[in-house]
Amino acid sequence: MPVREVVETRSRVPPPNGGNTKGNEEGGWTPNPGLGLDVHKATTTATYLGRDGRTQRVWTFPTTRSALTALPREVDPPTPIVLEASTAGKAVATILKEAGRELHMASPREVGLIAKSSVKTDARDRAKLAHLYPAGFLPECYIPPPEIDRMRSVVRQRQDLGYKVVLVKNPVHALVTRSLRDSEMGGVSDWFGVSGLRRLVQLPRGPEDRTALARYLRQLTYLATPEEELRRELAQLAVDREDVRLLMSIPGVDYCTAVAWVGEIGDIRRFPTQRTLASYAGLVPRADNSGDHVSSHSHVKPGDRVLKRFLCGAVMGMLLARQDTAVKRFYQPKSKPIGGAKAQVAAARKLSAVVWWILTHRTPYREQDEDLTERKEAQLDRVAQPSTALVSVEELTARGAEVEAKTEVLGRLHREGSTPPSEEKRERKG
Predict the structure, then answer these.
(1) Cα 134 from chain centre
(2) Phi/psi class of residue 250: alpha, beta or left (left: φ > 0; alpha: ψ in -120 to 50)?
(3) 43-49 and 34-39 as β-strands: parallel, antiparallel, unpaired?
(4) N or C: which end of the chain has fewer CB within 10 A?
(5) pLDDT per residue over 310-343, tens digit each?
(6) What DSSP designation does 362 have?
(7) What is the DSSP string of 107-122?
């Protein structure tokens, strides 16, 4: 399953000047001009609203750097620009911020809830965005700076590799089960560890299964190479960052996890309390209160999946570490009464408070193992050493030529591997 980027929302932005703008003749509020953008991959359409709240101009231009750079000359410099969060929208936002424009990015889901309409068109969407900001109802998203955005990109690339590894390992398990050889793998905790692989390749099987197993093992070898490159890139992003090194003082947390936390959190000042960070990560109970009814849901609220995954994974790392920590002491008495999975999420909630404290107060973990921290930092410095792994233009061109020779095969595999939308919906319901 692909890694999806979560949309991060902040509280609704207040009206410009706190809403204390000059009143009109009837004593009402006069909005400032606004520019709403409807961004698509090929083209972008802009809707300019005047001070009377009416559409003054609508025009379409190509979604290119040159056209976006020229956009600020189309409207008055103080005019705020509003657009919805998307992959193309983030790229547009980066270019416009570099041009020094006032930019606001909105959450598509929450905009739809606030300005819900039975008629949805691009023109109406643009007008909604331009109207919501001056009214103070825009559910604004955090726009990460380029370095943080790069961290997120590399972390997600590495996660995608992990999903692909799982997709390769599962058929290997199926091969063994079809030949009823699972009992011969008994006592092996990791089939793909050193001892597990040695036993796996020695299992009696037919020539067809041997060929299939060799093919799967070759795919795993191929996936291991880019993972090593991504780890080096993460180390290079982390080596000069104080916040990453402070988070590495937590036992069981390496630089890959620390970079993932920093990338997903961004500016810690976005979270005024520990609870707001836990809520953003989806580690607090969902609430549905009304009147005298107070909900007591067992499930946690939705949140940043990447941050939650790395927090939960770090809990397991802290349990394996020799150093005794508050998170370990919190987890152990809860694991049997409520189960390991729920205890892990509860401990991740506690760990998120530790992360918030470290990043807010710029202090290392108070229960750190100093020798372990020094070894982790030494490993970080070693892996981050410059290498010649960067791909040149000539190498990329040669790799493209190799793929060109396989375009027919890749196209056929893509068509056969794609699930029709109607069938995908039925599978999801079933």
Answers:
(1) 29
(2) beta
(3) antiparallel
(4) C
(5) 999 999 999 998 889 999 999 999 888 888 888 9
(6) T
(7) -HHHHHHHT--S---H
Max avg pLDDT among 65-69, 297-301, 404-408: 65-69
Edge-to-edge strand ranges of the sheet holding 43-49: 55-62, 43-49, 34-39, 81-84, 103-106
How far apart, in Å, are the Cα atoms of 342 and each of 285, 311, 331, 334? 12, 13, 10, 9
E strands, 85-195, in order:
103-106
End-to-end CA distance of the chain: 18
Distance of CA 187 to the CA centre of its chain: 36
- Distance in angstroms (rounded) separating the CA atoms of residues 340 and 332: 9
**Residues sharing a CB contact under 8 Å with residue 378, sequence separation 6 or more, in sequence order:** none
pLDDT digits (tens, 9 = 90+) for 127-148: 777 777 777 778 888 888 889 9
277, 310 contact by CB (below 8 A): no
300 SS3 class: strand
Helix (H) or strand (E) run with residue 404 in it: helix 393-404
Measured in whole angstroms, the distance separating CA 212 from the mean position of its chain's CA atoms is 34
Q: Determine the residue type at 398.
A: A
User: How high is the pLDDT of residue 10?
Assistant: 45
pLDDT in tens, 217-270: 999 999 888 888 899 999 999 999 999 999 999 999 999 999 999 999 999 999
CB 34 within 8 A of CB 166: no
List the Cα angle 75/79/83 in 5-degree steps: 95
Query: What is the three-class DSSP state of 52?
Result: coil
CA distance 286 to 325: 28
